[in-house]
Write a structure and sequence with these properties.
With about 750 residues, this protein is α+β, with helices and mostly antiparallel strands. Strands 28-25-24-29-30-31-32-33-37-36-35-34-38-39-42 form a 15-stranded mixed sheet, sandwiched between helices. Strands 1, 2, 3, 4, 5, 6, 7, 8 and 9 form a 9-stranded antiparallel sheet that branches. A 5-stranded antiparallel sheet has the order 11-12-23-18-20, with no helix packed on it.
Length: about 750
């Protein structure tokens, strides 16, 4: 039978003695007591047996158990060790009390133990977990099997000795604390109480990376890389260098420690009087099997064929909760209502082992919006005790969800969730982020004061959009439950768009997007539907495109709906980027895999997305809106925010004056302004570069348009030369788009490298 380790929840530091100085460590130290409350009979019995066995055999207590401190405490240099004194076990009080030694190993926190003693006197601080290995660690052979299966990832530089001890060298990463911020007010208590979630504004990677040496009596926060499936790892206190040891945060949780690209902080102290080189400095750890519950979770999350991919990226919030299922999303929003008069609560915060209900803030029956946001601030900071439920107080229907949150991987920022009917304003979102909230789930995107949201309430202004992009880049997740025409869908804000679950999986593969602009009038359907469908099919089948091809449109009726229906039938990825056209009688299409919907005042933001995401622009028959889009698209190319590529102007009917092509007069104007201008005795020269107009192609059919685009796909370099497009303009646009997170088609890079 496989024996997995016994790991307790956090115990509280309930008392501390006087501070003294440890000559052995060269740092201030104090003795204290950690109490584990509400313990099980099994834990108390095991601790009592191990304590008695150590006394009987004359062995050290740490031969049978150890303590792992909280990550945030170790990262600021607070260390904790078992003293070796026997723990006290009380069946009547259901407690285990363990004597510990606390040491301040960070010289920047010289007064930390005295401050910690004050915090302890105020009611105890969560400080560490007991780790009891009830069976052997994994052998070298078992570790190899786990790696072959894709349930364990180690960096390229690692070593596994004959006893199964894994040795992982430090990365070129060092984290530093701001000494000035540490000296401000309550910042120390903020870090101690909130742990690593309270460290985000005080600690940052150093631009200098890992120093060449650790000085004597020096504390250092470095990093290693590892991704664990259904295993737990325990870092040994001793490292590869004699005299350098790892601080108390030594337990790496299974599944939660996933994402090989995510650095895992390690906290080291050189207890010697000589400097130690860091080049080959490595931490050591042992791997243990996880409990059956965690193994069962791994079977669900690490599906065959994708286990290695999920483990490498980090187990995501959606992997654990199935939030894309509308029924699951509704469970998050349980008891949350759209307005105070409907009863229920304004919102909720969910985290491992705890849920917090946030009431509607109103006076005399009126909702006070600013008070509501301030109340959210205080709940996020942990300053309001009302509505907090823990342990047995939590409804049973919610407990599985909260249990799943503690296994979120990657940077582990996604274990705290804020839920409300609508997204709060951007400053409230920032407060949530600063206080460790990593996920937001809602039904809409904001309401007028005192109004219920009309679903789907999906509009964004520029400020909200830019904040969502920024917060997503910093690791937050946003989900909307949309219920439309009797159907429900859940979308995540991903790479600047609201995507479905399949849309999120497919979007990273789309490297070439074609924007289709045109009239919202439906009468064009019989004329354009069949040619557009054939046009899209031929592009999809081009060898350089395939599943890397997507279409973008304005989410409305007319040409936009024709394009969307044809793309859906052909399995082409669709992006709908619209504005609030319901005000002029146009209903939004929420069928595409990726969408974004803006207020009318954010028209330029919407156009920015369509233009920068698309390589090709197709201007079908259209009116004032399409004319605006033409001018914006050419301007974006001129300023280096779009790659020079064919812009196609199509009129298969001949709707211009005298049967001429519809867009001819528009293109003539562009040719005029980019030519040599003179008049009234003045020589003005061109008002715009000629090469912009050279990218504009007037065609009478979609077949002609495809021929132009296919020639570009086959040889972009030849197209740029023939059209007299300066390569420095192409390179500038590529770098601008890459900096903005836009995908660059591989054939563009190939062409630029060939012409280098």
């Amino acid at each position: 039978m496989i024996a997995f380790p016994l790991i307790t929840g956090d115990g509280q530091l309930v008392s501390m003695g006087d501070v003294h100085f440890s000559d052995a460590l060269g740092a201030p130290q104090a003795y204290g007591l950690i109490r584990f409350s509400h313990t099980s009979d099994a834990l108390r019995g095991l601790v009592r047996d191990l304590r008695d066995r150590a006394a009987r055999d004359g062995a050290a207590l740490t031969d049978f158990m150890d303590i792992s401190g909280r990550s945030g405490h170790s990262r600021i240099g607070l260390d904790i060790e078992l003293t070796g004194e026997p723990p006290e076990v009380s069946d009547s009080a259901r407690t285990v009390e363990v004597p510990v030694a606390l040491t301040a190993l960070n010289a920047a926190l010289a007064e930390s133990l005295a401050d910690l003693r004050c915090l302890c006197a105020d009611g105890g601080v969560d400080f560490g977990r007991l780790f009891i290995a009830r069976g052997p660690a994994l052998s070298r052979e078992e570790i190899g099997e786990a790696m072959d299966r894709g349930w364990l990832l180690l960096p390229e530089r690692h070593r596994i000795d004959a006893d199964g001890v894994v040795e992982i060298p430090l990365e070129n990463v060092r984290y530093v604390l701001s000494s000035r911020l540490l000296g401000v007010g309550r910042n120390f208590s903020e870090m101690v109480v909130k742990g690593k979630h309270g460290l985000t504004i005080f600690q940052s990677p150093s631009p200098a990376g890992l120093p060449a040496r650790m000085g004597p009596r020096e504390f250092l926060v470095g990093a290693v890389r590892i991704a664990l499936g259904p295993y737990v790892a325990f870092i040994t206190r001793e490292t590869s260098a004699p005299g350098v040891f790892h601080l108390a945060s030594r337990l790496l949780d299974g599944i939660r420690t996933s994402g090989i690209a995510t650095p895992r902080q390690v906290e080291l102290y050189n207890g010697e009087d000589e400097p130690v080189p860091t080049r080959d400095l490595a931490v050591r750890l042992r791997l243990y099997p996880a409990d059956p519950a965690l193994t069962g979770l791994a079977d669900r999350v690490f599906v065959p064929g994708k286990a290695r991919e999920v483990l490498a990226a980090g187990v995501d919030f959606a992997d654990l909760t199935d939030v894309f299922n509308p029924e699951v999303a509704r469970s998050f929003l349980d008891e949350v209502t759209a307005a105070p008069g409907q009863g229920g609560i304004y919102g909720r915060m969910l985290m491992p082992g705890k849920t917090i209900a946030i009431p509607w803030e109103q006076e005399e029956g009126e909702w006070l919006q600013e008070f509501q946001w301030r109340l959210v601030y205080e709940y996020a900071r942990g300053n309001v005790p009302e509505g907090v439920m823990e342990g047995e107080e939590i409804p049973k229907r919610v407990r599985p969800l909260l249990d799943a949150l503690k296994y979120v991987g990657g940077e582990q920022k996604l274990s705290k969730v804020f839920v409300a009917e609508a997204l709060p304003p951007v400053d409230t979102l920032r407060v949530l982020k600063r206080n460790g909230i990593g996920v937001v789930v809602a039904r809409g995107m904001g309401c007028a004061v005192g109004e219920s949201c009309r679903l789907p309430h999906f509009r964004m202004d520029q400020t909200l959009y830019e904040e969502l992009v920024r917060l997503e880049n910093e690791g937050m997740r946003f989900y909307l439950l949309l219920e439309i025409n009797g159907e429900a869908q859940v979308r995540e804000f991903f790479r600047g768009l609201w995507v479905t679950r399949p849309g999120k999986e497919q979007l990273p593969r789309v490297h070439t997007t074609m924007a289709m602009f045109g009239s919202s009038v439906d009468v064009l359907g019989p004329v354009l539907a069949s040619p557009i469908a054939d046009f899209l099919r031929r592009l999809r089948d081009h060898p350089r495109l395939g599943e890397g091809f997507g279409v973008a449109h304005g989410s409305g009726p007319g040409v936009m709906r024709i394009v969307d229906d044809a793309a859906a039938a052909l399995g082409i990825y669709r992006m709908g980027v619209g504005i609030n056209a319901e005000e002029i009688g146009q209903h939004t299409n929420f069928a595409p895999e990726a969408v974004a919907q803006f207020t009318n005042l954010a028209l330029n933001t919407r156009q920015d997305i369509l233009d920068r995401r698309s390589l090709f622009k197709i201007f079908n028959l259209g009116g004032f809106g399409t004319s605006y889009e033409i001018n914006m698209a050419l301007t974006f190319m001129k300023i280096g925010q779009c790659l020079p590529a064919p812009y196609i102007f199509i009129d298969p009917v001949g709707l211009g004056p005298g049967g001429a092509p519809f867009w001819r007069q528009t293109l003539e104007q562009f040719r005029t302004l980019s030519g040599d201008l003179a008049g009234g005795g003045h020589e003005l020269g061109p008002l715009g570069p000629r090469w912009i107009v050279n990218c504009c192609h007037e065609v009478g059919s979609y077949e002609e348009g495809f021929a132009v685009m296919a020639a570009f796909l086959d040889d972009p370099g030849a197209y740029w030369r023939e059209r007299e497009i300066p390569l420095e303009k192409v390179r500038m646009a590529r770098e601008n788009l890459r900096a903005a997170g836009m995908p660059i088609p591989p054939y563009i890079d190939e062409a630029l490298e060939a012409d280098a």
